[in-house]
Design a protein that fits this description.
- The complex is a heterodimer of chains A (230) and B (215).
- Chain A is of the alpha+beta class.
- Chain A contains 7 helices and 8 strands; from the N terminus they run αααααααββββββββ.
- Chain A has 2 domains: 46 residues, no CATH class; 149 residues, no CATH class.
- In chain A, 39% of the residues lie in helices and 22% in strands.
- In chain A, strands 5-4-7-8-1-2-3-6 form an 8-stranded antiparallel sheet.
- The longest helix of chain A is centred in the N-terminal third of the chain and has 19 residues.
- Chain B is mostly helical and 215 residues long.
- Chain B folds into 2 domains: 89 residues, Rna Polymerase Sigma Factor, Chain: A (Orthogonal Bundle); 80 residues, Winged helix-like DNA-binding domain superfamily/Winged helix DNA-binding domain (Arc Repressor Mutant, subunit A, Orthogonal Bundle).
- The radius of gyration of chain B is 19 Å and the shape is globular.
- The N terminus of chain B is likely disordered.
- Classes of the chains: A alpha+beta (230), B mainly alpha (215).
- The interface between A and B is large, with 65 and 88 residues.
Chain lengths: 230, 215
């Protein structure tokens, strides 16, 4: 029996623990056959969902969901307090994981993941952070994306639709605390969506900023941030 | 500010699922078309998806969590995940309802594992309120019966592994310990059970294709 096939069934049933799940997802990013099998098994687990039974939800739940969705319309500066974010962060991460499982991020993410896997930070770490249920997110102002910060302060950046850095340039991440900028990694941008772990932790009081710098990066930013966290 | 939302959602005036004429702008759209609209921040489309899948989603979350407020959390977070991530959904790869239910289940399982108030007896049959509720559409009742009877056809050990894993939220290692079996045996039961269930459901879908219509 192919161990990955058995793992695919266990994954579709959500019967893997956090570590097994992470390892399987790393495999999934590289295996089209498992992605196809998973999509098929998810249809079966979806059928199990229909058979679950259970009572009807309280009528108020519908209104709460729609009200919260409305408060999160894109291009509206979120007014919600930071403490309200953790649950939302983890579910966004789950949605992202599921998208990955279905191959929905397509080749651009696979390429990113492959590149990242060989990089020092590694995709594994970024995926671990974004799938941490205890993590919270902080949105960027001026770009579509957010950072995900785990309970231990490890952080990953998630960005959508960012143009690739111009030839000879790179995006550089900074952790900013008391107006001191500390370098936290480089990235090239491009692709539909992009995930990378920061090379240093982000405390509750810190912001994360992004600048455009010369290839190879710099020790201190040479201009104002392109965008930063709220 | 110019608002160009195509639909106004009237809170508190939820049309009954069983109403013969549903006056909802989105009622004629497929789930997948609705997800595409949700990706464009169409609230009416999100409301319609909730009306279609929310009840099943909540029933599932409740079966795993056995707690109303946690089940509501799981459903709410899953639908908000959908709201944020709808743009990443590609309908060729999965049905939209499957995607939503997968999100809900993942969330419910994570919550039940985090809450250590874990599930007194997950092998219970589906809760009583599940069958024949007036809110259910005929299609949902049919679908539930179809899956439950397929489950009954599985060998006991496979069904037990599937139910404990999926409705109980146990990990494969926890199952091995609980059932006093090697991990490899548990993995194999889950895989065989899920594969067999897939065959059974496919067979039934073919057999029933001529005799049923979905509402």
């Amino acid at each position: 029996m192919d161990d990955h096939l058995e793992l695919t069934a266990a994954y579709a049933l959500d019967a893997l623990d956090a570590r097994e799940r992470e390892r399987y997802e790393a495999h999934l990013a590289t295996c089209e056959r498992c992605r196809e099998e998973l999509a098929s098994f998810w249809t079966v687990s979806g059928a199990l969902a229909h058979a679950a039974g259970g009572p009807a939800p309280a009528p108020a739940l519908r209104g709460r969901i729609l009200a919260q969705a409305r408060s999160e319309r894109p291009n509206v500066v979120p007014l919600r307090p930071r403490w309200a974010l953790p649950a939302a962060a983890s579910v966004a991460a789950v949605a992202a994981m599921l998208a990955l499982g279905l191959g929905l991020w397509g080749t651009s993410l696979s390429r990113e993941l492959d590149r990242e896997r060989s990089a020092r930070a590694g995709a594994g770490e970024a995926l671990e952070i974004v799938s941490d249920p205890g993590a919270h997110t902080v949105a960027f102002r001026g770009a579509e994306g957010h950072i995900v910060v785990s309970e231990t302060g490890k952080a990953a950046v998630v960005l959508s639709g960012l143009d690739p850095a111009p030839e000879g340039k790179t995006y550089e991440l900074w952790v900013v605390e008391n107006d001191v900028f500390r370098p936290a990694g480089l990235f090239e941008g491009g692709g539909a969506r992009f995930v990378q772990a920061l090379s240093r932790p982000v405390s509750d009081d810190a912001k994360v900023a992004v600048t455009l710098e010369k290839e190879g990066g710099v020790d201190a930013p040479t201009g104002p941030p392109l965008f930063e966290t709220i | 500010m110019i608002v160009c939302a195509p639909t106004v959602v009237a809170f508190g005036a939820r049309p009954k699922r069983t109403a013969p004429m549903r006056i909802r702008d989105h009622a004629h759209l497929s789930d997948e078309a609705l997800v595409a609209l949700v990706a464009r921040s169409d609230e009416g489309a999100l409301a319609e998806l909730y009306d279609r899948v929310g009840g099943i989603a909540y029933g599932l979350a409740y079966r795993v969590l056995r707690d109303e407020s946690l089940a509501e959390d799981a459903v709410q977070e899953a639908f908000l995940g959908l709201w944020r991530a709808a743009a990443t959904f590609i309908p060729e790869r999965a049905k939209a309802s499957t995607w939503i239910l997968t999100l809900v289940h993942r969330r419910a399982v994570d919550l039940v594992r985090r809450e250590e108030r874990r599930r007194s007896e997950p092998l219970d049959e589906a809760p009583e309120a599940s069958t024949g509720s007036a809110e259910d559409s005929a299609w949902l009742q049919f679908e539930r019966e179809r899956v439950q009877s397929a489950l009954r056809e599985l060998p006991d050990q496979q069904r037990e592994a599937l139910e404990l894993a999926y409705y109980g939220g146990f990990t494969q290692s926890e199952l091995a310990e609980r059932l006093g079996q090697p991990l490899g045996t548990i993995k194999s039961r889950m895989f065989s059970g899920l594969s067999r269930l897939r065959e059974l459901l496919d067979d039934r879908a073919e057999r029933d294709a001529w005799t049923t219509t979905s509402s």
